[in-house]
Design brief:
The complex is a heterodimer of chains A (375) and B (607).
Chain A: E1 9-10, H1 25-33, H2 40-46, H3 51-63, E2 67-68, H4 116-120, H5 127-139, H6 145-149, H7 157-171, H8 183-202, H9 205-224, H10 226-229, H11 238-244, H12 250-271, H13 275-288, H14 292-303, H15 309-322, H16 327-339, H17 343-356, H18 361-374
Antiparallel strand pairs in A: 1-2
Helix pairs in contact in A: 1-3, 2-3, 5-8, 7-8, 12-13, 12-14, 13-14, 14-15, 14-16, 15-16, 16-17, 17-18
Chain B: E1 4-9, E2 13-20, E3 23-26, E4 36-37, E5 40-42, E6 48-50, H1 52-56, E7 65-66, H2 80-88, E8 92-95, E9 101-105, E10 108-111, H3 112-131, E11 137-142, H4 148-160, E12 164-170, H5 171-180, E13 187-194, E14 199-207, E15 210-219, H6 224-243, H7 251-267, E16 273-283, E17 289-297, H8 298-322, E18 332-336, H9 343-353, H10 366-379, E19 386-388, E20 390-391, E21 395-399, E22 403-408, E23 412-413, E24 416-423, E25 432-438, E26 448-455, E27 467-474, E28 480-486, E29 492-497, H11 505-547, H12 549-552, H13 557-577, H14 583-604
Parallel strand pairs in B: 1-11, 11-12, 13-18, 15-19
Antiparallel strand pairs in B: 1-2, 2-3, 2-4, 5-6, 5-7, 8-9, 9-10, 13-14, 14-15, 16-17, 20-23, 21-22, 21-25, 24-27, 25-26, 27-28, 28-29
Helix pairs in contact in B: 3-4, 5-10, 6-7, 6-8, 8-9, 11-13, 11-14, 13-14
The chains are: A mainly alpha (375), B alpha+beta (607).
Chain lengths: 375, 607
């Protein structure tokens, strides 16, 4: 029962959309009259519902957590926690399961840097699911099958099966049947393919054995030099080969993950126009891994704004330093130099391009044009 | 949420189901039956009959009654399956324009998707009457071992019938869905599905709402119809021995034999002996009538079909091995399809798996129910059901020397993708032809062709130097796409293998139109018949009034007589035209009669 002199107030933490039972129109009306100053007694007279109906409606509003009434203890009507707990602004339909515990990932969702544009995309997918998809998808290349399934190397058939079912239920494309989810459709498909691939290997004793052996070899080579490394099993299995290539130890793996994340951050900053950030992230990324193409991408992005030509120049040069034969990076460098009015230097760069590729038409054309204008 | 119906489009019978408020339910037809015979007929007057109506007239209209059409759908004209049907079926099977198969009924040739569409339409109608709205979407089941073109042809049937088939699923998988739905099942199960025309075996892992198909195999030409054929052969043989007459040459006798064989087979599932009595089965040239009177025992039947049953058991054995499982790993065996009522089959299956089959599901209804469950699971994200289906056949391309290189193995969970790098085999080869095949044979020609395309513009180089990456993918919908990329130039060619259907888009559009025209005509015909009934009733009323006019009229006798004559004139005119008039004319006649009747009544009462 309420204290009639108590002043109910709206609870801003609870989103009406998140409730499993939408309040009735009477309740909504009453809800709209609650301002934190009007007493229960006054509400009864003003609601137009009559005293009993008003008290009843108020009770329901308080029980679902929409309204707080001093001195009243809400009585949630069921075990459904969403009633009293604020939930993210997501389609409840997506959240049928409890979601996944992804804390075992090297960069779990809590510390993952999500690209805002993907989170803000207007597609029918809940926020939590988005984060799961992005985060898992980003890790696909970095995890071995055991890590991906979140199980130990000693996991038995039952554990593998449970993990397989749990992941499938979350990421099978049928869970979003005929829904247009933009880039998420492809990500889900890729994740699911990786799930079946991992399962195919881990559920087949023979394949699993070969796979485990290849993991151990890769691991021991890294940690203890030639102890087992010399006798590494030839990797006869296609799947095994491609799975282990380039992600042999956890250090490399983590570095790759960090690199990928920094590149993503850099691009996302560029999209939002923050070129200082873009430069910073690219610089950090390249310090982790010297990748000519990424350096070129940085140069291309930065070239778009007048103020950052200098940086574009530096990244283009970096790309050439990493890969001396990089024609594309040279062409970009020439372009930037031209824009800065450094024609002589640009021409030198174009000549270098022609040395690398004597039939390079664009370089020849630029050279002809520049020669004409300089005379 | 939009309702999706589940349709079990069977060889002998079809069944439609729906999930309502979380509960699956089979929808009975107008006759109260939960299954409808998959039979289509065209009468002499050009009317289409479906289901029970078609079955009832099959004896007298054998040549224009199509049954077991599922055995022909998606097949090539030259295939052995088609040749077998041509020999045994009383209806006329003719070649289609794309090396496909058509059925001639009266003066029209029907493609197999059209025949199936007529059945689908009937099932849609059954659902519509129950749901009180027209269902737009359906999940339809096919035998697990159906090939891509058989599946595609089934989808075409849906299009012609005006149904969006949102997914095709395998019959045994559907059965498993029905078996495990709404319960917390954690088991490995075997589904033994012996229906009217096909045999399928599937092994599934079921747990926490996930239905994971481990392995599936079957024979698309082994079913109840073959059991019937054995009985027919036996009866015809006995008859030929006694009378030196081949009954199978006489269409009507053959149809009666077929009915009797099916009936005896069913009876022998519950009794030890069945009387077969077919009086006046054949009339000899001298006018003497011959009768067939015999007894078929369960033992004799079992002897006749022993090898057929053994064939199914062999496939079960191979499938278990393929999945790397033994009898012990199977927790439950589920029997699906009408043929599994046969005690001998139950016994053989129990012996093989070393456990009694589950009695939990109804063999005739379980597949339709499973289809409805999958429909609901696809539309409703909250539905705690996920089907992990597999592709039943391997996929690959033709390689040098007529060989076949598989890229996707049979029983791979879909969606899936695989790629492989191939090289040129000749010096200065500048193009490669990618021939996409489906099947298990090592010889390319023995597999089914799904499609082909050419990747050209390759660099002229010594053999083996140019690399081409071929990628296969199968979407969750089972649609196969293949792409080939020249790794040097990045040039890409690809196809989506949906064109493997035997019908072109134009043909399908035409068939949709023809179907709509037919339905419109039927509707107009029904309307016309209603008008005629109404007209006849009015005519009787007027005639009655005229006869009794003298005794009942209160108005001026002379006027009454005159009015009576006028009304009779209208009646006479109406009677003359009633049969030939179209719907508009009938309406006009009806109006004239109505006015005449009102006027005459008025005069009779003197007002």
């Amino acid at each position: 029962m309420f204290d009639e002199t108590a002043t109910p107030s709206q609870n801003p933490d609870v989103d009406v959309e998140s409730l499993s039972e939408t309040p009735s129109s009477d309740e909504f009306f009453l809800y709209s009259r609650i301002d934190g100053q009007t007493t229960v007694k006054e509400l009864c007279t003003r609601s137009g519902l009559g005293r009993d109906a008003t008290i009843e409606a108020l009770e329901r509003l308080a029980d679902v957590g929409l309204v707080e009434v001093p001195g009243y203890e809400p009585q949630p009507s069921g075990p459904d926690e969403s009633r009293s707990q604020p939930v993210d602004e997501e389609d409840s339909a997506d959240e049928s399961g409890d979601g996944l515990d992804l804390s075992y990932l090297p960069t779990p969702p809590e510390s993952f840097d999500f690209p805002e544009d993907l989170l803000d995309l207007d597609v029918p997918l809940g926020d939590r699911k988005r984060r799961e998809v992005i985060c898992i998808h980003d890790h696909l290349d970095d995890l071995d099958h055991f890590e991906f399934f979140g199980v130990g190397r000693d996991a038995d058939r039952g554990e593998i099966k449970r993990a397989y079912f749990k992941l499938s239920k979350r990421f099978h494309p049928d869970k979003h049947f005929r829904k247009e989810l933009g880039p998420y459709n492809d990500m889900l498909e890729r994740i699911f393919q990786q799930i079946t691939k991992a399962h195919r290997i881990l559920s087949d004793p023979k394949r699993r054995q070969t796979y485990e052996a290849s993991l151990e070899d890769a691991g021991s080579e890294e940690t203890s030099g030639s102890e087992h490394g010399a006798g590494a099993t030839p990797m006869s299995h296609d799947e095994v080969e491609s799975d282990t290539a380039g992600a042999s130890d956890s250090g490399t793996k983590k570095r790759n993950a960090a690199f990928a994340q920094l590149v993503r951050r850099a691009k996302s900053s560029a999209r939002s126009g923050d070129y200082e950030e873009t430069t910073e992230h690219f610089r950090k990324a390249l310090s982790l891994k010297r990748d000519a193409d990424v350096a070129l991408q940085a140069a291309q992005l930065l070239k778009q704004t007048r103020q950052h030509r200098e940086e574009a120049l530096l990244f283009a040069r970096a790309a050439i330093r990493i890969d001396d034969d990089h024609v594309e990076a040279r062409m970009l460098l020439g372009d930037v130099l031209e824009e800065m009015g450094r024609t002589e230097e640009a021409m030198a760069v174009y000549r270098e391009v022609r040395q690398l590729d004597k039939d390079h038409r664009a370089a020849s054309r630029r050279l002809d044009t520049l020669t004409d204008t300089s005379h | 949420m939009e309702t999706v119906i589940g349709i079990d489009l069977g060889t002998t019978n079809s069944c439609v189901a729906v999930v309502e408020a979380g509960t699956p339910k089979v929808i009975p037809n107008k006759g109260g039956y939960k299954t409808t015979p998959s039979i289509v007929a065209v009468t002499e007057s050009g009317r289409r009959l479906v289901g029970q109506m078609a079955k009832r007239q099959a004896i007298t209209n054998a040549k224009h009654t199509v049954y077991a059409s599922k055995r022909l759908i998606g097949r090539k004209w030259g295939s052995s399956a088609v040749r077998h049907c041509i020999e045994t079926c009383p209806y006329e099977i003719v070649p289609g324009p794309h090396d496909d198969v058509r059925v001639r009924l009266r003066d029209k040739e029907y493609s197999l998707p059209e025949i199936s569409s007529i059945i689908l339409q009937e099932m849609k109608l059954v659902a519509e009457e129950y749901l009180e709205e027209e269902p737009q979407k359906a999940v339809v089941t096919v035998p697990a071992y159906f090939t891509d073109s058989q599946r595609q042809a089934t989808k075409d049937a849906g299009k012609i019938a005006g149904l969006d088939i949102i997914r095709i699923i395998n019959e045994p998988t559907a059965a498993a869905l029905a078996y495990g739905f709404g319960e917390d099942v954690d088991k490995t199960v075997a589904i033994y599905d012996l229906g009217g025309g096909t045999f399928d075996i599937s092994l599934l892992d079921i747990g926490s709402g996930v239905f994971d198909v481990l392995s599936t195999a079957g024979d698309t030409f082994l079913g109840g119809e073959d059991f019937d054929a054995r009985i027919i052969e036996y009866l015809a043989y006995e008859f030929a021995r006694d009378h030196e007459i081949d009954l199978r040459k006489d269409e009507m006798a053959l149809q009666r034999l077929r009915d009797a064989a099916e009936k005896a087979k069913m009876q022998l599932s519950s009794v030890e002996e069945s009387e077969i009595s077919l009086p006046f089965l054949f009339t000899q040239d001298d006018g003497e009538a011959l009768h067939l009177q015999t007894t078929l025992t369960r033992e004799k039947l079992e002897e006749l079909v022993a090898d057929l049953i053994q064939r199914t058991i062999k496939i079960c054995d191979a499938t278990l091995q393929e999945a790397g499982l033994t009898n012990d790993d199977i927790d439950d065996v589920i029997l699906v399809g009408g043929m599994t009522r046969m005690p001998r089959i139950q016994q053989e299956v129990a012996d093989f798996f070393e456990k009694s089959p589950s009695k939990k599901v109804h063999p005739d209804e379980v597949v339709g129910i499973g289809a409805a469950i999958q429909g609901s699971a696809l539309m409703d994200e909250d539905e705690d059901v996920l089907l992990l289906d597999v592709t039943p056949h391997s996929l690959g391309i033709m390689v040098h020397g007529g060989g076949y290189e598989k890229l996707i193995e049979a029983n791979s969970t879909i969606p899936t993708a695989e790629s492989h790098i191939f090289t040129t085999v000749r010096d200065n080869q500048t193009s490669v032809k990618i021939v996409v095949l489906q099947g298990e044979s090592e010889r390319a020609e023995e597999n089914e062709l799904l499609g082909e395309f050419v990747l050209s513009g390759l660099r002229s180089a010594p053999a083996g130097e140019v690399e081409i990456e071929v990628e296969f993918s199968i979407s969750a919908d089972g649609i196969v796409s293949v792409s080939a990329t020249d790794l040097e130039t990045g040039k890409e060619q690809s196809i989506t293998v949906t064109a493997s259907s035997d019908l072109t888009d134009e043909e399908i559009d035409r068939m949709i139109q023809e179907n709509e025209d037919y339905l419109m005509e039927v509707k107009r015909g029904e309307e016309a018949e209603q008008q005629r009934t109404k007209i006849r009733k009015m005519i009787r009323n007027i005639e009655k009034l005229v006869q009794r006019a003298d005794s009942t009229a209160s108005g001026d006798p002379e006027l009454v007589t005159q009015a009576g004559e006028r009304a009779s004139d209208v009646v006479e005119q109406a009677e003359e035209n009633i049969e030939d008039a179209d719907i508009e004319e009938l309406k006009a006649i009806s109006e004239r009669l109505e006015r005449a009747l009102e006027a005459y009544k008025g005069v009779l009462q003197g007002t």
